[in-house]
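Notebook entry, structure prediction.
Reason for the run: the old model in the group folder had no record of what sequence produced it. Starting over properly, with the input documented here first.
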Amino acid sequence: MSLANPWAIPSLLATALALGLLAYVYIRRPPPALWPSLPGVLLGVVLFAAGDAVSGFIARTPASHAVGILLLYTGLFIIGPATWFLTLRVAEVLGTPFAWGRARWTLAPAVFALLLWPVVATNPWHEWFVTPRIGSRSGFGWLWLLHTLEIHGLVAACAGLYLRMARRARSDAARAQARLMVGALAVPALCNFAYILPERVPPFDPTSLGLCATCALFLFGIYRRRLFALQPIDFAELLRQESDGVLLVDRAGRLLHRNPASDRWIPRGSGAPGDLAFPLLAGRLVPAEGGAALDAAQLEAELGGDAGPRQGHLYRLAEGDAWLRVESTPIRRARGGFACRVLRLRDETAFQRALLEQRRSEEAVQHAQKLESLGVLAGGIAHDFNNLLLAMLGNAALAREDLPPDSPAAEYLADVERAAERAADLTRQLLAYAGKGRLEVEEVDVSRLAREVLDLVEVSISKRIELHCELAERLPGVIGDASQLRQVLMNLVLNAADAIGDHEGSIAVRTELVELDPADGRGWLGHEPWQGGRFLALRVADTGGGMTPAVRARIFEPFFTTKSTGRGLGLAATLGIVRSHRGFVGVESRPGLGTTFTVLLPAHASEAPAPAEGEPVSEPGWRSDATVLVVDDDGPVAKVAARMLEAVGLRVLVARGGAEALALQREHRGRLDAVLLDLNMPGLPGDEVYRALRREQPDLPILISSGYPEREALARLRGRGPIAFLQKPYGTDALRRRLRELLEGA
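New structure, fully documented this time:
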C-alpha cells in the first residue's frame, strides 16, 4: 500500500490538523492550568495519526511496520492521560473544579502508560501486545486488551465529567464548551470501536477520521466558543494598543512587562523587565489632597501587597499640570496563589480639569446668588433707612427755619443735617451696590471720562505712585450714567492706590474695545446671563501686594474691607453700578503680584433709551393756596413732608395709606391740586393708588417719592398725566422746588 491510497487521507489530514493546532496552541499559550495537558493531547494525536499512516500505508518491511506501530501506540499512551488531565484542568478554568482534581491518585493513568510503553517498544521480540500484520489489522494480545479497556474507560470518565460541568457551569458559554468536548471525545471513540469490534476487517482504521472530527470541533470551539481561552484575539497586541499605561509587577515588585502607553509616565531609558517598578514612579506622584511627592516605599505601601485590589488612587504629577489615576489589582492563579499585580496608569487630566471647571462654575453661580441676595438686602435696608433720614432732615430743616438767625441751636441743627446727608450718601452707595442707583442715561465717552477722573485723583494719591494711561481714541460710546461710571473708575483707582500704600508703585489705566465669545464667561460678575459680545474694557492694574483667593472671593460684599478705616462699600457699589449698566467686572490677583480690575461695558450699538417718564399735560400753575395730598404710610415722614409744605402756605391733607388717600380724593373731588405719593406702602400699594387717582382725576399732578431709584419706581407706572419723581431722603428746598416745577409744568 502507499500514500496514493485514498484511505490514507484521514490519517494524513488528522496529522496536519493536529500539527496546526499544536503550533497555534504554542503561539497563543493557553491558561497555565491547561499547560502541558492540552499540547499533550494534540501531540498524541499527531503521533497516532502519523503512526497509523506509516503502519497502514507506508510500511513495506516488518521493521518499518514496527516503527509505525510504536508511533501509533505511543500517541495513544499520551492521548489517554493527557485527555484525563485536560478534563480536570478545564473544570478549573470553567469555574467548576473537582475537589479531588489535584489528588495524587489522579496520576494513575500516566503511571500506567509509562509502565506499558516499554512493552510496546519491545513488542517485535515477544508480541505480547499485538501481532503485526502488514496490510491488515494486527492481532490483539492480552496487554492490548488491558490498554484498550483503560483508555476507553478514561474517555468515558472524561465524557461523564464534561456532562457534569455542562450541568453545573454558571454561564452559557461554559456549558457550550463542555458539551462540545463530549462530542470531541465521543466521535473518535466510536470510530475506534468501528475498527476493533467487527469480525470483518475494515479497509482502513476510521479512528484517524474521528480524530479529524475532533480537530474540527476544537477549531470551531476555539473560534466560536472561546474553547481553552484560545480566542483569535492577540492579547499582547491589545495590551500594546491600550491607551492606559499598564505595568505587570511580580510579588517582589519587579517589572514583568509594560505596554508602550506607559512610556509617558516612566522616565526615558528605564522600565526594562526586571527593574523595580515602584522606584520608576517615585518622586513623580503627589497625592491629590496635597503634600510632598511619594517615594518608592510609600508607593509600594499604597499600591503593593496581595491583600486585595486597591483601586482608584489619584495623584498629581510633581512637574506639570497632569493628573494620574493608578489602579492596582492583584491577579491570582487558579488555586488562589498570587500571580502578578496589574498597575493601570490612567490619564485623568482632562476629567480633573473638567471637574475643576464645573466646580468653579458652581462656585461662581453661588457667589453671584450670594451677591444678588446681599443686593436685595442692601436695597431694602437703604429704602427703610431713607425714610428715617427724611424725618431727620425735614425736622432739622424746619426747626432751623423757625429759629432766629443768631440762635446757637441753628449750628447744631446744621450739623444734624450734614450728618444725615452723609448717611444718605451711604444709602446711595447701598442702592448702587444693589444695582438700583438712579441713572441719568446718556452716551458716554469712556476714554474722555477716564481722563477727567485721572486729572482729579492724580493730586490725591501718593507722589510715589506713578499713574500710567493708555486710553484708546475713537472708541464706541457706552450708554450709561456718566457720574456713576466716574464713581466706578474713581473707586478702582483709589482702591489701587490704597493697595500700594506708602510704597513705590504704579497704577495703569487702559481702555480698549474687546470682542468676547459666549464661552469666555468664566470669572465675570455682573449682569446675567453672560452672552459675550462687543464691550468697552476699562482696566485698572496696580503693583500692590495683591490678594489671597479668600480675600478675592469677598471683595464685592458690602461692608467687607481689609482697611482699618474703610466702610467696605466702594467695590460693592462698583459691582452694583456695573450690573445696572448691563456690564461685568473681573478680577485677577495673586499675593505679591498686584491686582487688575477689568470692567466690561456693552459698546453702544443703538440710540440710548430715554428714562420712563409720563407726558405732562396742561394744568393751572403754582398757587400758594394750593391743596396737596401727602400719602405715606410712615407717620414721621408724612408729618415732616406736610410741615415742609405748610411752611410755604400750602394747604395739606395727610393720608396714612392708599385706602385713606382714595377716600380723601373722593371727599375733596376737584379741589386737589397735587399729590405727594409714596410708592412702597403695605396694604394698597402705591402703584395701585396712582392708577386709582388717575382714573378719578386724569390730569392731577402727582409727585412720586421713593427710597428706590427713579427708573425702577417709574417703570411700575403707566398712563398719561403730569408726573415727577423725588428721591428719598429729600430736604425742604428739594421738595418745594420739585413740587413747584410739577405744578408750573402742568
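Summary: Residues 235-347 form a domain with the Beta-Lactamase fold (CATH 3.30.450.20).
The old model has been moved to the deprecated folder.
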